[in-house]
Write a structure and sequence with these properties.
Blueprint (H helix, E strand, L loop, with lengths): L1 H12 L8 H15 L9 H11 L5 E3 L6 E3 L1 H8 L3 H12 L6 E2 L6 E3 L1 H14 L5 E5 L2 E5 L4 H9 L1 H4 L2 H15 L3 H20 L5 H14 L4 H21 L9 H21 L1
Antiparallel strand pairs: 1-2, 3-4, 5-6
Helix pairs in contact: 2-6, 7-13, 9-10, 10-11, 10-12, 10-13, 11-12
């Protein structure tokens, strides 16, 4: 983002390094989010406010004017203000995006002044401005927050596949990111296996399983006269991944940590990008 890049250049010219602790950086991020979501209760349906309160098991409070029968909620905004746990705060943001957010048009109905798209844009900018461990992406109207990796890799191997995967495979890829965020690594790996399986089925136009389609994909690469060494590399990666999934996630009995889960996400993103380019 321009503002951040400008300040980074200024700091570099003057040899200024940030004195912020991670706690300070999170506090700044929280303030940015509170500014963005200010008045959020007024811009979601009453049913969504109720659903939100039910999810968190909190008392649903509505404020009533002295005159008239109008009432309003501050349940969501109050919960945001109170939350100081970093991961729970990220969960709150994702949950809010799943609510029924009402869109508001400007004077004369020329443009939106409030909508889920505008909120997503503003939160994305807040993430870019903040030195906190979170990334944000969206797929088919669903907003996902997950631990931040290397920026370029996230863009190319996480965000990009969401734009070209077919319906079945993208659902599994999105679930893999959510499970990764929740540290449910085995479930994340299994969702990645299913994403690969469904995308291969989509590209090869059949209903075969992952192992059978790995072999079919290699045969197609050979018939298309793809480089032999590249074919061998791709085949080996697919086969090793298939073996890994069978031993660790398919039967829900593996031992997968953060770094392995992250590697699997990036590797899956790399493979589906290649698949999309060659078929």
């Amino acid at each position: 983002m321009d503002l951040k890049r400008k300040m980074e250049k200024f700091n570099k010219r003057w040899s200024i390094t940030s004195a912020d602790s991670y706690e300070d950086a999170f506090k700044k991020f929280k303030t940015r989010i509170l500014n963005i979501f200010k008045g959020i209760d007024r811009n979601v349906t009453d049913e969504s406010v109720t659903a939100f309160c039910q999810y968190y098991g909190i008392e649903e409070v509505w404020h009533t004017q002295t005159y008239g029968d109008h009432s309003w909620s501050t349940n969501i905004n109050d919960r945001l203000n109170r939350e100081d746990d970093e991961k729970e705060f990220y969960r709150l943001i994702e949950l809010i995006f799943s609510l029924d957010i009402k869109s508001t048009m400007g004077y004369g109905g020329h443009s939106y002044t409030y909508s889920k798209d505008i909120l997503f844009r503003d939160v994305t900018q807040a993430v870019e401005l903040s030195d906190v461990n979170v990334s944000i992406t969206a797929s088919d109207g669903e907003v996902i927050l997950y631990p931040k990796g290397e920026k370029k890799l996230d863009e190319e191997l996480v965000d990009s596949p969401l734009s070209f995967l077919n319906k079945e495979s993208v659902e599994h890829f999105v679930q893999a990111l959510k499970f990764y965020q929740a540290k449910k690594h085995i479930k994340s790996a299994e969702s990645l296996r299913r994403a690969l399986e469904e995308f291969l089925r989509h590209k090869l136009q059949n209903t075969k399983g992952l192992n059978a389609n790995i072999a079919e994909f290699q045969t197609k690469l050979k018939s298309d006269k793809r480089d032999a060494q590249v074919r061998n590399i791709i085949g080996s990666i697919f086969n090793y991944l298939d073996q890994y999934f069978n031993e660790n996630s398919k039967h829900n009995d593996g031992d997968i940590d953060d770094s392995e889960n992250e590697f699997l996400i990036y590797q899956t993103g790399l493979l589906v990008r290649y698949l999309d380019n060659v078929i």
